[in-house]
Amino acid sequence: MKFIKWFLAILVTLIVAVALYLTVFFDPNDFKPEIVNAVKKQTGRELVIGEDLSWTFFPTIGINLGGISLSNPDGFMPKAMLEVNKAVAEVELMPLFSKQIEIAQLSLDGAKINLVTRKNGSSSLDGLTGKSTEKPVTPPAESSAKTQLTSIDVGGVSITNTEINLIDEAKGQTQTLTLKQFTLGAFSLDKFAPIAYEFAAILPDMTINSQGEGQIKLSQDFNQLMVEKLNIETQVEGDGIPNKKLTAKVSVNSQIALDKKQLSADISQFTAMDINAEGKLAVNYVGKVPQISADFQLGDIDLDALLPKSDTAEKQTAATPSQTQAVEPDLSAVNGLDVKLKLAVKSIKLANLSTQNWLMDLGIKNGMVDLKQLTADLYQGKLIVNAQVDARTKVASYQFDKQISGVQIRPLLKDAAELDILAGTANFNVKGKGKSLIPELLKKNLLANGRFDITDGALYGVNIPQMIRSAQAKLKGDMSADTKEERKTDFSSLTGNFTLENGVATNPDLAMSSPLLRVAGKGSANLLTEALDYRLTTSLVNSLKGQGGSEKDALAGIDIPLAITGTFQKPEYALDTQALLNNQLKEETDKAKEKLKDSLLKKLGGF
């Protein structure tokens, strides 16, 4: 018992002696001028330590710093780049004698950082790398071995109320980032330690609040950093955000090979705007351009729910001056990307258009965006697309190859454009290229060619047999022809080729076949004005009996002109009655000539 008392007495005496020595003979303020001069020499900046440095002795030895500021370069506002209200470092004394660092607590409170970018491109960070050109002397291997630390133990780290202001004088914008709190629990090499943070940002068009917690581990050789069970929740608000508010949750495990400069992340859960996803991410940042590889699987995505309502969009359009000139999107960032992305999506709904089983393989490298393949199930059919975008020039160029097979065209047109003009099973392919990503210029500059083939379908909005019957009756003087039948024309096939140039799609060989009719012709569709201009020739194969006609039709075999005009939304169909009459008269005249010729031949004895 006496031994324990004596041991404690000696220990207390030793601590008191160290405290007296440090207080009386070792004043940390003696080093303030040297620290200030060293910073001035290396950076050209003014370092101010406003408050006296002081020791702490219980329960650990440490040092208090306060009123610290580091200036911005001359002429910058604000004048201070860094301001620190209070910093405390507490270190266990005894482990230092065994070449071990045991930090009881690191605390930083009230730090403020002002990073300014001026109109001429200079910034607050210029010159911080130092002006000295002397190479550092590498200590001998033996000396390094003697000073190598055997362990690092940190009782905890607390950073509170840290504010970062990003000031862009050219744009007249200030972005404020606030690290409200960051804590690190008891930390040792090769052991997981708890971490937690709370972060906020005020940007010109949105505000962000984020908080998270997880575990972190650093390997003994400082080469591997692991983050596990990191759960992050983020809220974003702003006018440009869908429904003006977004909440996202992420659960991730990550590993960073610090020596090889490689990062891998396994995202077990991502939830935002009713979208669920999971996947893997890998980043190799050893080179000038980081290499990024990602493979994600997503659930159902309803993009309609994320877009502004139509009335809001119309108000925004009305509020936008018509003379405002659209500008090309800035794709310069693409030149600094090396990305491989694979994406699988269960379903996507956009503009009331429903699609399923999306698979995408995308690559970005050297300013080229290569959509190697995009496939999806589309209205009982299949969509296959590959495309490339060249972003190396100010005005981007592109090319694509798109195929649609076995698609039910009527429900697709209804959902996509509220059009009920065509039904059938459609096959469609088109290849094209162009320049500019501005919507209007995209339509004007697009050069494309393709083919369509629709089987077992119908044209809605027009009943060609009924139109012919009505025209035929009126030619005979019957002005009361029935026009109350359904406006629909069935066909067995509808085919054609087309080209697209200057915003106008031209179809030179439209052909429609049915048991009753044959339709052939050509025309155009203007994508800019949505105007239709088709001139077709219709002929009856036999009779219109199946749709109310006589046993043998008087117009069978006669070419019947048909015009399609109007717009995509309101197509107009019309028969050229005068041309029909002329064709019928010509047919009757030709028949009369044949009869007269036959009669003369008989009278002349067959000569």
From TrEMBL:
Keywords for this protein: Coiled coil
Keyword Coiled coil assigned: yes
InterPro entries for this protein: AsmA, AsmA-related
Span list, region Disordered: 124-146
Record-linked Pfam families: AsmA
Keyword Nucleotide-binding: no
Record domain AsmA: where: 2-233, 313-510
Coiled-coil stretches: 575-602
UniProt-listed PANTHER family: DUF748 DOMAIN-CONTAINING PROTEIN, PROTEIN ASMA
Protein name: AsmA family protein
Organism field: Shewanella decolorationis S12
